[in-house]
Amino acid sequence: MVMDKIQGGYSILTYETLGIPTPFPVGNINCYLIKNEPITLIDCGVYTPKALESLTDQLRNFGLELGDVKQILITHAHPDHCGLASVVKKYSNAKVYLHEKEINKAMDRAEHLKRIELHLAYYGLPEDLRHEMHNYFKWQLDFVQPLKKFEVIEDGHIFTFDGAELQVILTPGHAIGHLCYFEKSDRLLFSGDLMLGSLLEPISIEPYRRERGLVDYIESLKKLSSLNISLILPGHGKPMSDIEAHLKRIANNHQQRKKQILDIIKGEGKITPFRIASRLWPKLNMFLGISEVLGYIDLLIMEGKVQEDQTESRLIVFHVKPFDTLNENIV
Ligand SMILES: [Zn+2]
What we know:
This protein is of the alpha/beta class. The protein folds into two domains: 6-107 and 147-246, 4-Layer Sandwich (Metallo-beta-lactamase, Chain A); 256-330, Winged helix-like DNA-binding domain superfamily/Winged helix DNA-binding domain (Arc Repressor Mutant, subunit A). The protein has eleven helices and 15 strands. A six-stranded mixed sheet has the order 3-4-5-6-7-8, covered by helices on one side. Strands 9-10-11-12-13 form a five-stranded mixed sheet, with no helix packed on it. Strands 1-2 form a two-stranded antiparallel sheet. A hairpin with a 5-residue loop joins β14 and β15. α8 packs across α10 (286-302). Residues 1-10 have low confidence and may be disordered. Bound molecules: zinc ion (ZN). Residues 26, 29, 78, 80-81, 193, 235-236 line the site of zinc ion. Zinc ion binds at residues 26, 29, 78, 80-81, 193, 235-236.
């Protein structure tokens, strides 16, 4: 897609969508090439020869080489978004920008995954599935080159281009330091993995402390709904223009799923996040399933309906808050 127009003597942001292959079930990642100076990539794909070749070929279609890239704006430090950043930097000496809360992930993904494995054990993932998860995480490590040099950016930072600007918006939820990039004149939002149009919300466990992914995610969506966005340019899939319908669909899903999870907890006494996730989605990757369940449990805890406990063997379990049961009995 090409956007190129003149407004009041200034050219507005000119961008192209580059679909870069990944080995993950999600399929291609959309990287965005900003052709205004300084030449910029928003995200840059996984660390595979195929992705590098695809990126190089697509840049060439626009008369550019890897060496022409001056900066890379990372939405978040997952392998499909920043795995190739070190390599592009090596060819181009481009500056790589990301939020400080993504630094640990970008610099040492092995440690990040090791900590997540530990959390999954506390959340009830049985040993055989932990072993499978360990192998899956190990496989993922091949698709990232650790990032050694980068620049840290904060919410509100403005990137200035020849005739255009991009504003950084911190939107935690999918990742704790997830950033969107907003172009004010045309009201475009480069949204990374914040809104993917999928059935499950794209939230994930963070390993350094228990973040409230879904609570953050809902706050991030509220922040975006006030921007009057005309087009969302996501990290995967097609652009979305009917933002309000999308937000409504998300809100409906939340209500239904929250009730479903509360009903399971009510029927079980004490239950681990893993057991809830495997009841709801027996075939799903349990990293995603447990992340999703914890998100809804955080909402239920905030509403005073559910309580968290830890067993002697350090398993995290949830149960209905006694007051809620009492209330129901009275009613
Ligand atoms: Zn992604």
